[in-house]
């Protein structure tokens, strides 16, 4: 496998990253169509060579689906892959039947021509994403991911509102995707790649106007890589985490850390010197640095005045957990290399456990980790007893991050995916929602596939 490349940034006039916005169909304002099929795209370098991927509507990532808060989203899906699939709407508080979990909330959408209609209301504004929930590691690793942007009723005024979908690929010298399914990846950090793309492109010049205000909706659609984005001399403000508003603030250490599955919305004002670079670095691996996007300034300012300080965006109608009355639960993460992984587990293809239990992909045999009552508040202490990072995701709910290693967090975030560092304890709280079995799993998809998944049963 080739070593990670440090791609030279393309200088000069580059095309804007094309947002493939799917037009709404006539007569049905919020109906979208996703055709899932193999495709060939130039991943490693613009202009070729082509890499065989799996795509939504022919491209990677899939189209940015844009809708409005309060609207009903309808998506017709057609599966032309050689394998069954589903679509999971990551972070959206969907009804249980629309959650896209095979064998649990729906039957898989059959290979070679299967169809499925998803239709649900959008209670929250924000940045969400969609991806398969069957053979997740391979399916997402082959490119299946796209951003879902739900506009607020009163959107924040910006000059441009852009989704930046980050994908990490393991590509061979022949520009093919390396084989999937190694147990070594599953028992360590997951499938880390050697090419990072932003909206499907490995390196790009991105033209901006001086004084332009951008809203960047970062989506980590990689199966394993935890990014830390740096914007060099630019000073971005974080305005939302996993879609939900937070008081605008500068990211700690000027780095935006983004675990698999997570999203961060940023305001970036194009001030300062032209030619600012947005770089991604691997959070935790100093050898990995990757110049990703070169913001090329048009010095002619977009307007006379500077944009005013951004005001906080309106909160989503999330149920606030009652911390006084919340019932405590524990979610203990164990296993993995240099940890509790035993020979016996490895023999079964299992590398990880949650509270001593583990489930395979496919969700036939998911273990119930806890039974919760709809409407009640819960505090869950996530204890990472492993040597690895785990972005823990709960379906159908949004939770508050309360403490890390017992210390209250400075700025409580709403999230659907919490990044838990090795040996760290993270406490979250939420109100149990619609009755049903809701998946909780690690969003390092190779970990999920090797046992790190279970259910919260809401009765
Ligand atoms: Cu984004 Cu259960 O997944
Ligand atoms: Cu994990």
From TrEMBL:
Keywords (A to Z) from UniProt: Metal-binding, Oxidoreductase, Signal
GO molecular function ontology, one term from the record: oxidoreductase activity
Pfam families documented for this protein: Cu-oxidase (PF00394), Cu-oxidase_2 (PF07731), Cu-oxidase_3 (PF07732)
All residue ranges annotated as the Plastocyanin-like domain in the record: 46-154, 193-272, 364-459
Protein name: Multicopper oxidase family protein
Keyword flag Glycosyltransferase: no
Residues of the signal peptide: 1-26
CDD domains found in the cross-reference section: CuRO_1_CumA_like
Phylogenetic classification of the source organism: Bacteria, Pseudomonadati, Pseudomonadota, Alphaproteobacteria, Hyphomicrobiales
């Amino acid at each position: 496998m080739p070593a990670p490349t440090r791609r030279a940034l393309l200088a000069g006039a580059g095309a804007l990253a094309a947002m493939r916005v799917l037009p709404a169909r006539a007569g049905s304002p919020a109906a979208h169509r996703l055709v899932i099929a193999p495709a060939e795209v130039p991943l490693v370098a613009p202009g070729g060579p082509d890499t065989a991927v799996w795509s939504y509507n022919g491209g990677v990532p899939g189209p940015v689906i844009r809708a409005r808060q309060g609207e009903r989203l309808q998506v017709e899906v057609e599966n032309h892959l050689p394998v069954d699939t589903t679509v999971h709407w990551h972070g959206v508080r969907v009804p249980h039947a629309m959650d896209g979990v095979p064998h649990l909330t729906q039957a898989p959408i059959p290979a070679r021509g299967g169809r499925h209609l998803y239709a649900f209301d959008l209670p929250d504004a924000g940045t969400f994403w969609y991806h398969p929930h069957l053979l997740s590691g391979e399916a997402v690793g082959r490119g299946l991911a796209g951003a879902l942007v739900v506009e607020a009723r009163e959107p924040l005024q910006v000059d441009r509102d852009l989704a930046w979908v980050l994908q990490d690929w393991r590509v061979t010298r022949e520009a093919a995707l390396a084989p999937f399914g190694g147990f070594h990846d599953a028992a360590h950090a997951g499938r880390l790649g050697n090419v990072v793309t932003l909206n499907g492109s490995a390196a790009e010049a991105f033209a901006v106007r001086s004084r332009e205000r951008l809203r960047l909706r970062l989506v980590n659609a990689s199966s394993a890589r935890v990014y830390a984005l740096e914007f060099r001399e630019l000073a971005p403000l974080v305005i939302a985490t996993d879609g939900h508003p937070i008081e605008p603030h500068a990211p700690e250490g000027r780095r935006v850390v983004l675990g698999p599955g997570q999203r961060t919305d940023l305001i970036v004002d194009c001030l300062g010197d032209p030619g600012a670079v947005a770089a991604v670095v691997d959070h935790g691996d100093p050898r990995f640095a990757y110049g990703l996007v070169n913001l090329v300034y048009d010095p002619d300012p977009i307007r006379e005045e500077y944009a005013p300080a951004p005001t906080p965006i309106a909160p989503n109608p999330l149920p606030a957990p009652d911390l006084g009355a919340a019932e405590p639960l524990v979610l203990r993460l164990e296993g993995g290399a240099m940890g509790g992984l035993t020979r016996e587990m490895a023999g079964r293809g299992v590398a990880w456990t949650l509270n001593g239990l583990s489930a395979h992909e496919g969700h036939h045999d998911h273990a119930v980790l806890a039974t919760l009552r709809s409407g009640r508040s819960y505090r869950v202490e996530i204890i990472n007893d492993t040597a690895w990072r785990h972005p823990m995701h709960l379906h159908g709910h949004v939770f508050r991050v309360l403490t890390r290693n017992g210390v209250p967090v400075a700025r409580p975030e709403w999230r659907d995916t919490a990044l838990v560092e090795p040996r760290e304890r993270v406490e979250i709280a939420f109100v149990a929602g619609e009755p049903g079995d809701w998946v909780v799993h690690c969003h390092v998809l190779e970990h999920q596939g090797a046992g790190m998944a279970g259910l919260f049963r809401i009765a």
